[in-house]
Amino acid sequence: HGNMAFAGKYEFEVDENYDDFVTKIGLSSDKIEMGRNCKIVTEVVQNGNDFTWTQHFPGGRTTTNTFTIGKEADMETMGGKKFKATVKMEDGKIVADFPNYRHTAELCGGKLVEVSSQISRLAYKKQNKTKK
User: Fold this and answer.
1) How far, in Å, are 98, 118, 127 from residue 123 at the CA level?
2) Residue ranges of the domains in the chain?
3) Rounded to an integer, what distance in angstroms lies between the CA atom of residue 109 and that of residue 39?
4) pTM tops 0.90, yes or no
């Protein structure tokens, strides 16, 4: 299957459900404000299955993740948390499971569309045995 060419520079255009998402993943309010309508520029360098994915934030801060499709890599979240992930290519989309959300990126009509969706988390409490 052919890999889409993701290489390029993309300027932030619009976000949907931003507040809901960043609150759910636990970003602090100062980081939420910093990211709101922030003109982030995402720069993607692609060499086959090797990617360097850099987000340039206003004020000079950057987050860079370097990864190879199908291999575990050291990654960093928007909030600066480090973790390991194996980035996959599924139906032309780049897919990565972050610590508490799934992130996909695809090209749609020349635009880079990134979607972060929360992964459902269920917790069950052990029941105490009750004597009859």
Assistant:
1) 19, 15, 13
2) 8-130
3) 20
4) no
